[in-house]
Recover the amino acids of this structure.
């Protein structure tokens, strides 16, 4: 089963998790991280790192964030590069998560990423999809040295 870390500004993450659990019952390997005003980036990183390790059963973890570029998205993006089968999604909603919930048990992290973006491509994206639009920066020196 894929782990879920729902990370949003203010209380949105806990609200989403509470709504999901009210509708579907307790969710294993799922944590909410609320990034509150005045919280340091270091504290956010520590909370998200703990959540990553708590939710990972070996199949991977999906970071579900509200907005690209916000602190939870940036922190998850940095963490995802250090862990295999870790995806970062932005633009989530309750309806989208409710639709994707059953797929946590059957899809790989990469297939899950593609499926969730396909459901609402106008509002949802992933770190991987963003990187495909904007390839990594390469120094000219590195190009000519090859």
């Amino acid at each position: 089963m894929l782990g879920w870390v729902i990370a949003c500004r203010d209380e949105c993450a806990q609200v989403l998790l509470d709504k999901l659990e009210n509708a579907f019952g307790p969710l294993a390997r799922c944590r909410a991280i609320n990034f509150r005003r005045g919280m340091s980036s270091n504290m956010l990183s520590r909370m998200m790192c703990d959540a990553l390790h708590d939710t990972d059963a070996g199949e991977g973890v999906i970071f579900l964030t509200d907005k690209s570029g916000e602190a939870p998205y940036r922190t998850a993006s940095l963490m995802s590069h250090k862990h295999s089968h870790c995806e970062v999604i932005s633009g989530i909603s309750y309806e989208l998560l409710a639709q994707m919930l059953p797929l946590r048990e059957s899809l790989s992290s990469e297939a899950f990423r593609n499926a969730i973006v396909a459901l609402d491509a106008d509002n949802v994206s992933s770190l991987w999809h963003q990187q495909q639009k904007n390839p990594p920066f390469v120094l000219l020196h590195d190009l000519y040295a090859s």
About this structure: The mean pLDDT is 91. Strands lie at 3-9, 30-35, 61-65, 86-90, 125-126. The domain at 3-133 is CATH 3.40.50.510 (Rossmann fold). The helical segments are 12-24, 41-55, 71-80, 94-100, 109-119, 127-133, 140-145.
